[in-house]
Amino acid sequence: IIKYWFSHTHIKRGICMSFKTYSLKLDNKSSIDYYKDSKAAKDLFMNKVLQKCSKLINEFMMFIESNEIEKLRSREEYLIEIVLIGVLVNEYIDNARAFKYKLNYIFTILNSMRKNEILKIKVDKIRGILNTKILLKSKKINKEVSIKDMEYLIKWLEASGDFKEEGIRIKRWHLFFVELKDKDISEFMILSNFCIDNLYSISEDILSKYVANVDLYLKKYKRDHKYKENIIYCGKSKLQYYFNMVCSQIMNDIYKNRFLKTREKIVFLPSCMRQNKSKCLGIKSEKGFVCKCCSKDCNVNIINDLGKALHYSTYVVSHESSFLKLKDNNNGEIGIIGVACVLNLISGGWKAIRMGFIPQCVILDECGCSKHWLESSKMSYANTDYIKKIING
Question: Residues 338, 29, 22, 278: is their CA dihedral positive or negative?
């Protein structure tokens, strides 16, 4: 099958619409107002839902501890996972029910092959076709979500290749659901839906101005992303923007004090923050590209220079999946600030946590890459005042 696709797949690149799905700056020169608003949204959300989910969180933590599944994390982190499941069920359950999970092995092979840089381009062409023709098929069934549906959802998420960290966490909840046996999963979904309803309504009131273009973008994006491997990633709903905006603030609060106590701090920046008027002279290292200060107008250079005063290291990485390859026996003493497009925030933070690092999240002020959103790449920005605030506490 793979051999056939390599020899017969020729997808023409369509005209990509140029679209900033979100902007933290609006008409201002700084995005600092966004961080005030997202904190307000986070505080209101937590006040509304944390106590309501308290009993469920306690039961899940007892399950985790008694089965030695992982070292217990905070109650707030498990709340994020309850919200996550609601978001993903809301978004993808119809696709998961339509997916013939016996095909999962094909997607597993392709997702593994794309780790090879030489094969990645061809493999992604195949994935684009399969994602469009198979994973985006939908089957609407008017019934409550069952444990079996959760299995379908896990298989679908694995096949997409875009939800590794999310899948790890949902699998643990699935084990919890299985142990409940005759207890209906509908009780969980009622709570999860209560959370996402509050998340959405609060975010619409406070944060909607920052994602004003998302709905318009989603009406047209399939035309430009058909048969492209990023069709699922780029088609994420406004609810997923809100999830990352609010829950990244929760995550920052959880790890703030531990981050401040770390012996080493590293800022990871995406490659779209580099100036693009001339060739970047950054040097590749084990942790990522090291800035060589070749342009005073480069945003990487600006944040790298700030690091000399605030005592953190700066590295540029091409993608969230390519960073955090650090191998250190003392990962818990390393604090990481991940700067990323809004849709990558939580998954990057979860990866850092899973590897033992202490994370903080910063959103790019706007999306800037041509791969997903724009016809031509533009240098993206991150709020340096917010980075200073994280470093200094």
Answer: negative
CB-neighbour burial class of residue 233 (10 A; exposed 0-12, middle 13-18, buried 19+): buried
Cβ-proximal residues to 353 (8 Å cutoff; 6+ apart), any chain: 73, 359
Type of residue numbered 333: E
User: Does the pLDDT of residue 17 top 90, yes or no?
Assistant: no
17 against 74, higher pLDDT? 74
The answer to whether the CB of 337 falls within 8 A of the CB of 268 is: yes
317-336 pLDDT, tens digit each:
876 555 555 655 567 789 99
Q: What is the pLDDT of residues 19-46, one digit of tens each?
A: 688 999 987 778 999 999 999 999 999 9
Q: Are strands 334-340 and 358-363 parallel, antiparallel or unpaired?
A: parallel
Helix %, strand %, coil % of the chain (to 5): 60, 10, 35
**Pair type for strands 283-284 and 289-290:** antiparallel
Rounded distance, CA 75 to CA 98, Å?
Answer: 34
Continuous segment of H or E residues that includes residue 363: strand 358-363
Span 36-65, mean pLDDT?
A: 97
Contact between 140 and 94 (Cβ < 8 Å): yes
Under the banding of pLDDT at 50, 70 and 90, the label for residue 9 is very low
CA 79 to chain centre: 17
As a whole number of angstroms, the distance between CA 350 and CA 248 comes to 10
List helix spans (H) across the chain. 2-8, 32-49, 54-66, 75-98, 104-113, 117-130, 147-160, 164-180, 186-206, 214-225, 231-234, 238-260, 299-310, 345-354, 384-392
Query: How many residues appear in the chain?
Result: 393
Alpha-carbon Rg for the chain, nearest whole angstrom, is 21
**pLDDT band at 13, cuts 50/70/90?**
very low
pLDDT above 80 (res 389): yes
Nearest Cα to Cα of residue 77 among 293, 235, 247:
247
pLDDT digits (tens, 9 = 90+) for 168-210: 999 999 999 998 765 678 889 999 999 999 999 999 999 999 9
3-class state of residue 210 by DSSP: helix
Contact between 154 and 170 under an 8 Å Cβ cutoff? The reply is: yes
What is the strand order of the sheet 313-317 is part of? 283-284, 289-290, 313-317, 264-270, 334-340, 358-363
Return the structure tokens found at 54: 């308290």
For 64, the token pair is 């985790």
